[in-house]
Specification:
It contains 19 helices and two strands. It is an all-alpha fold.
Amino acid sequence: MMQDSPIYIPTDSSHGAVDSYLSQEISTTASEHLDESNNESTARDSEGEEKKMRKKALPMDCAPAPNEKLEQAQKMAEKFIKEKEVYKANRELIRCVALTRIIYGDGHWQLAQAFANLAHSYVILQGLPTQAIEHAESAKRTMLTGICMPPATPEDKREILGTLVTIYYTLGVAHLAQNNGKESYLSLQKAERLMEELQELDGRMIMGLKISEKDLVIALGRTCLQQNKLDFATGYFEKAVDAVISTEGDTASELINLYQKIAQSEQLKKNHEGAIAYLLQAHSICVALHKKLSVEAAQTGLLLGKAYAATGDQQHIGAAEMYFTESLVAYQAALGSKDSLTLTAIEEFSKWLLHVGKKQQAYRLLKDSLKSIIDTYGDFSEKAAETYHIMGSICLAEGKMREAYQLFNKCLQIQIVVYGPRNRKLKEMQELLTALERSPAVHEGNRLVK
């Protein structure tokens, strides 16, 4: 039997004030949606359908009460979220906050829940961490000031704990998006403890909880990776892998990103063999789900090429070249030769070829891609200048002074336009050209070849 005990809410030393626009936004929304006369401000393309849903099962001569309007707004928000109508969903969630405040007042946990749902939508659906933090902090303050008595029912306690999980998860993800790893980790740890308490209640979870255990461990893995807590990151991602496999099987598409994240963690630990093992699993799923000549397979193939290259072992040169080549072929087939992802793959491949001494192969690869680079980025672009510079360096290393001079001179002309006449790179390039001018090989008869 559950004891009626107060719920512990994790706190921070400071909370920060909510901007004035927040209260204005809510009060305006409350006024707007209690006044039946200004319904014309709703979106034209969904007006008929929304009105139908709002008036369903209501007497024609009776205006809906606030609690009925709240129920309709919640249903509409869920509908728009499922349909990925982000801005319409957000409008309904704002409505929910306004109506919840009118019905329950400023200190009720259900107002905190409405704020938490709005905050969650801002960061997850819209990728707006600043707004998410504002509303999540409002939800947290409402909880801190509003819960002074034990919850009325066991179900209330579950709802309150679920809301707290949403609040701290949202804060964690929002801070992570702002590269604030410390705050993110603290918030997500609180969400993890609250999730454990929620799971212990009668041995079951609250229905309709926004945050799954998988969501939480993935977020914890990401924030640990950001803070270089690599063992913790791997542990959390492996928990997420287990959760996905148990529900969706070992070829679920979500595993691709998880295996890539674990591989990233292992690479940072210099465990190249471990990273390769995880990337091979990710690549295998990509090929099975998306076929070999797909963007997804190209991406994992490129990561595998780089992973094999990172070992520095002679025995892995063949594998590295194979995956670089397969990745490039897949990008070209799926996106074409002028796509930025294809050109990035060429750049990565050519740099590795140079590193292992395959200069002529790298030169041919860059020369063949030069027209695509110019067509994509422009004649006078940083990418074009870099390509000319690499090709010039290859020629210089092989003693082809005349070709090197011509390529470096083209690079200089582009750099002048891209960086301006006083950039440090221009000075270095001009010094190199001046040194090359002393070489007889650069001259043709008495004329300098440019």
